[in-house]
């Protein structure tokens, strides 16, 4: 939050400091002028004709006195004082305008197109502060059970959201492109990315650097080859395969081997318990939203950074769209899948700060399904989920064809 009282106090302190500095300068000027006048007086009273050098020195001193007198004349001091008053009035006016604008509009005016970065940074800091402020708990069996109950609550909340029935998408229409972009909706919403086109943000150097840093830091991806490898992994295996492996293991010991360190063993055990708890209710195919949603976001990030072409990104999103439509049947189910995979990911990482994370994801789904377009929300509501295509219709449209290679 922008502390307007603090702004006022800092402005007042700056004004007082400037006035103090001005007063000090005036006093020093007066002392200097008196010293120069004394020198002139001594020079005038000295015996004999002044030599050329002395006369020149006296003339220079006189000019300095005159110059200083002009710089700090009463008129000049009056002008400086008036300027101070004008500055203070401007500060007061800006503070009043800031109060009327509110924080969001104020930040937008201050930082313009870079507001996306600043907003994301502030939100990230807020999330970190909230998690740090919460009591740290060891990720034990009791906490795992609490997190399962929390996930069930969030899934029920999403399932209760309104949504239109799936509709038939004609082949070779822009609807499929838009649907593919909206598969990145959960992460896009958390990062305030644009969902109206392939580009996630405006192309500015600072924003491009921010996206590069995000992809490298969060995913360990440094270029085209690693990007495509990760997208292939998510599209073909991902957490769906990992969840299936945990579901199929009758005992925890079947997942462990001697090459694992203690941390890896703990991760596998938490994943196994998660799968055993939910396998009767959710099949491995329910993980599709988690894998597809992240792969779609990587495709858009890669296109934005120029690591893949727009045609390649469209082709990737088309394939991801078909996988999503085959396994899932609504945006609600897609969002639920994302929360489901998100909790498993947190457990595998050994991260106990899950409550706020699931809350942010749930809020994103609510905004996408129920928000208003004028608030830059409701994108899923405006684009109904497509009905599954028959096998003969699933061939990629001609305009989506592109060879994707490393």
Q: What is this structure's SSE topology?
A:
Elements: H1 4-45, H2 52-71, H3 74-101, H4 103-111, H5 115-133, H6 141-159, H7 174-182, H8 185-190, H9 205-219, H10 224-236, H11 238-248, H12 262-278, H13 288-304, H14 310-327, H15 331-349, H16 355-370
Describe the structure.
- 68% of the residues lie in helices and 0% in strands.
- With 406 residues, it is an all-alpha fold.
- It folds into 2 domains: 98 residues; 267 residues, no CATH class.
- Helix 10 runs antiparallel to helix 13 and helix 11 crosses helix 12.
- The longest helix is centred in the N-terminal third of the chain and has 42 residues.
- The protein is globular, with a radius of gyration of 33 Å.
> Total strand count, please?
0
| H/E element sequence | HHHHHHHHHHHHHHHH
Q: Over all CA atoms, what is the radius of gyration?
A: 33 Å
- The figure for the number of domains is 2
Q: Number of helix segments?
A: 16
Query: In percent, how much strand structure appears in the residues?
Result: under 5%
Q: pLDDT below 50 for ≥5 consecutive residues: which ranges? A: 47-51, 101-135, 391-406
Helix content: 55-70%
Distance between the termini: 46 Å
Global geometry: globular
Q: Output the structural class.
A: mainly alpha
Mean pLDDT: 79
- Biggest pleated sheet: none
């Amino acid at each position: 939050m922008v502390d307007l009282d603090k702004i006022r106090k800092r402005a007042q302190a700056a004004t007082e400091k400037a006035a103090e500095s001005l007063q000090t300068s005036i006093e020093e000027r007066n002392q200097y002028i008196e010293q120069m006048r004394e020198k002139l007086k001594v020079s005038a009273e000295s015996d004999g004709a002044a030599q050329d050098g002395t006369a020149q020195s006296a003339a220079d001193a006189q000019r300095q006195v005159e110059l200083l007198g002009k710089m700090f004349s009463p008129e000049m001091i009056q002008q400086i004082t008036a300027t101070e008053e004008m500055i203070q009035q401007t500060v007061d006016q800006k503070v009043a305008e800031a109060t009327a604008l509110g924080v969001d509009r104020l930040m937008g005016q201050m930082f313009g197109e870079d507001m996306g970065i600043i907003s994301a940074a502030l939100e990230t800091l807020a999330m970190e502060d909230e998690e740090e402020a919460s009591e740290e708990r060891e990720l034990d069996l009791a906490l795992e059970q609490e997190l399962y109950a929390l996930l069930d609550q969030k899934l029920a909340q999403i399932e209760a959201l309104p949504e239109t029935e799936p509709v038939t998408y004609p082949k070779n229409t822009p609807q499929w492109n838009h649907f593919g972009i909206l598969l990145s909706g959960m992460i896009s919403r958390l990062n305030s990315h644009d969902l109206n086109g392939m580009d996630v943000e405006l192309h500015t150097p600072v924003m491009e650097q921010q996206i590069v840093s995000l992809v490298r830091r969060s995913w360990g991806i440094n270029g085209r080859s690693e990007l495509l490898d990760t997208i292939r992994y998510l599209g073909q295996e991902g957490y769906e395969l990992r969840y299936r492996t945990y579901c199929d293991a009758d005992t925890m010991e079947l997942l462990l081997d001697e090459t694992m360190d203690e941390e890896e063993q703990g991760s596998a055990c938490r994943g196994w318990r998660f799968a055993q708890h939910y396998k009767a209710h959710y099949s491995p195919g329910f993980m599709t939203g988690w894998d597809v949603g992240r792969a779609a976001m990587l495709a858009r990030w890669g296109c934005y950074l120029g690591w893949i072409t727009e045609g390649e990104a469209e082709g990737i999103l088309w394939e991801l769209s078909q996988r999503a439509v085959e396994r899932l049947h609504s945006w609600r189910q897609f969002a639920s899948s994302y929360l489901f995979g998100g909790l498993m990911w947190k457990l595998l990482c050994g991260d106990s700060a899950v409550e706020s994370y699931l809350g942010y994801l749930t809020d994103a789904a609510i905004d996408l399904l129920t928000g208003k377009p004028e608030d830059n929300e409701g994108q899923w509501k405006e684009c109904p989920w497509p009905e599954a295509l028959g096998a003969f219709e699933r061939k990629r449209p001609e305009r989506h064809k592109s060879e994707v290679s490393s």
